[in-house]
Known about the structure:
Residues 1-22 and 36-62 have low confidence and may be disordered. The chain has two helices and 31 strands. Among the domains are: 8-84, no CATH class; 101-138, no CATH class; 147-219, no CATH class; 420-472, no CATH class. The chain is rod-shaped and about 220 Å long. Helices cover 4% and strands 20% of the residues. By secondary structure, the chain is mostly beta strands. It has helices at residues 8-14, 20-32, and strands at 76-77, 83-84, 101-106, 109-114, 131-133, 136-138, 147-148, 152-154, 160-161, 176-181, 184-189, 193-196, 204-208, 216-219, 235-236, 242-243, 264-265, 271-272, 316-317, 323-324, 347-348, 354-355, 378-380, 383-385, 406-407, 413-414, 432-434, 440-443, 450-451, 460-462, 471-472.
Amino acid sequence: MTPGCPWASNLLEVAPLLSENLCVGLVVLLAAAGCTQNFDDFRGNGGSGGAGVGGLGGGGGAPCDCDDDNICTQDLCDPDGGCLHPAAQVVTVPQVSGDCKNAICDGTMLAQEADARDVPIDDGNDCTTDECDGDMPVHPFVAPGATCNTDGVCDAMGQCSDCDDPGDCGTDTVCATYACTKNACVTTYLAPLVVSGEDDNDCKAMQCVDLEPEPQLLPFLADTEIDTNPCTTDTCSVAGEIEHASVGAGMPCDDGIHCNGVDVCDAGTTCIHPGDPCAGGATCNNFCNEVAETCFNNTATACGSPADTACSNPDTCNGAGACSPNNEAVGFLCGDMMNTTCTNPDTCDASQVCLPNHAASGATCGSATSTACNAPDTCLNGACAANNAAAGTPCPDGTFCNGVDTCNNAGGCISPGNPCPGHNMPSNCNDSCTETAGGSCTGLDVAGTVCNEDADATNGTCTGLVAEPNCAGD
């Protein structure tokens, strides 16, 4: 009887009667059931005959070599001398102690699964435990202060310490301090801490890190190198390398010079300048002022009209981008400054004309005397005109004996004098001027006037009497 398969012997008794295909199927069925029968029993003892009662025939009874060195398969021979490797059903897979794994057969494949019971071998350290982390052996530190080696205590680094003072534990550094607490060394790490080199622009610094008593030279991203190029970034890589990447084409940059245009970065790392931003600008807006950062032309730069008169100066830029006419204000004194009855000082009007500001022609001025030779004075073109009558204009004063009166062109009336010969005719005593009867030259000469009416050698004197003769002593 086949161990574990009491029914298999019955099948073996009829095996010689089965066809070859049925026999092979029987072998597979028994293997799947876990029977450990030596399946060579199925082969007949006959020769190389067919698949009759004489057995499976085939190889004439010669055994086959089908070992595939796989613990998870069975090694079987088929009737034709071939190999069959169905999955083994009852397998004891060799194990490795303390590897946190359980070796198993997964079908016909050797596999491993996590086994928390297969704990690692003791590492001999009282300050660690021996555990499985999944399928990996680990030895984590026990909590600091746990007892170890009878009278020691475990520190944070999994070491068994025994101390009396901090000096037994170590010498303080910039990154760690040592203390002895209850005969146990306690190490305090000061990480994270930058010790030095945080501002030397090399993307690295000496730093304290966990569980390291001495500072380490490590990447420090804030310690960038400033290249003063507005077209690059100033950064550090995670590996502590200096980086100056392009900020990209079209990004603004400033070289500190206004008059070369609005600066932008090219596709690389260069700040480019379009040129004078004021070129081609409007009047008074085409001069670049670097200090003021404007395009305003300087004050007094000529522009517009160049006219220079009493009421208008040449136009100039006002320094704020506009062309100023520089006209004098309305009322600004210009030209003739004379101030009389007939004229005021000249002043500018809104059209930049210098006005004479004369009084209206005919306005009263000067003398108000009104005579035959002088009408009242009036203004004319800013001057006070005398309005005198023309010379020779008659101006009778009602007196005959001063002659025919005429104007003298200066406003005066001129009397030429006695129109009568008077004493020019000494022989007569009645040739003097008289106003009688409208005036004539028949008036009596003044008494005592020499006279000689008879034209002899002896003169007489006029008596001044009306009756003739009036030349006494002639």
